Please model this.
Amino acid sequence: MLDHSQGLIEFINASPTPFHATKNIECCLLGAGFQLLDEREPWQLEKNQGYIVKRNDSSIIAFYLAQEANQSNWRMVGAHTDSPCLKVRPNANHVEKNYWQLGVEIYGGVLLAPWFDRDLSLAGRVTYLDEHKQRHSCLINFQRAIANIPNLAIHLNRSANSGWDINPQKEIMPILAQLETEQSPDFKQLLQTQIQAEHGFNTAQILDFELCFYDVQSASVIGLNQEFITSARLDNLLSCYAGLQALITSNQQYNSLLVCTDHEEVGSASACGADGPFLEQVLRRIHGSEEDFVRSIQQSLLISADNAHGVHPNYTEKHDQNHGPLLNKGPVIKINANQRYATTSETSGFFRQLCEAQKVPYQSFVTRSDMACGSTIGPITASKIGIPTIDIGVPTFAMHSIRETAGSHDLSYLIQALCAFYNQQHL
Model:
């Protein structure tokens, strides 16, 4: 259990953005013998070999081709690489009373209050021209704390503990530095300096960037009995990590696939998101003919792994009384009559049987009928390619906060269940 927890901590700490998460997944797969494919080139696929396909550097598909594709079904696990965060605006510089701030956009359903008074760093992708006017992109990560968003003292905001509407345009603007009167901030020069320090080369011109702030506090295992994991981005890097560990430790006897896509937190509608063509195009290239593709998909199964809402002991009324998942009691089967989750009785029955055979505990979650239900990549992928799907996830506290909490036992349970899924002969 502690080995899995430590591995997850290292993965999350090294993955402050979807770009970094995708790169780290790729490196792990390359170390396990998988080969990187280029979507722009012809593919020559061989049996008993693993392959990697990336798109936008923020989404990744890894698959192991154990048999002829048109004679086999697929065991697929899906997750997403993105998390709610603060993204830097294109024209970000803002100076107020000689404090250098950066304007940000709110990405996804951020729980804003916990972002105040945190030590923040900056990471992401930068696109630039080199000295020969050739265009490139690279990843950067300042790693050290370079900013924060100070709270307003309670003396100046007497309603702070009674709740107040946070203005995301005005109040969520990180402070980077205090300038001298004659200074003018140059954010692109700051990026050029960071690229030189991190990668050892100079850039002629910064063209654009996709950067987000993140909390520098390390993920941790806490609790008197080390039963909890606290971290940023548990939703959904925990599932990405669990799927990755299951894939590379499986016996690789059957066709297996892991898909981790970007933009889930904003609807998945992008070229590299679950509502885009990425997974379908990869599968069609593997199979070749339409007949083989459709037959294979109808014999396959997708486990959509995304965190679930654990019942909070201070807010038990927020759950249906018979469907309040507890941390460290196993992965949660997520069900919704209105298809916010893609689980059916058949896919749920399969997962329940799988867990029971592995002695992995499991739970069920249904949202209260008087509350809105979130969704996942499960229904999107199911409707996109027609694959039977189940939605599951590890129960979590404070989802979409800058720091979330999950059970350390549940991480091990999820890896065990997904590995058994990859090793399952009959779906």
User: Anything to note?
Assistant: The longest strand covers residues 85-96. Residues 85-215 form a domain with the Aminopeptidase i, Domain 2 fold (CATH 2.30.250.10). The radius of gyration is 22 Å. The mean pLDDT is 95.
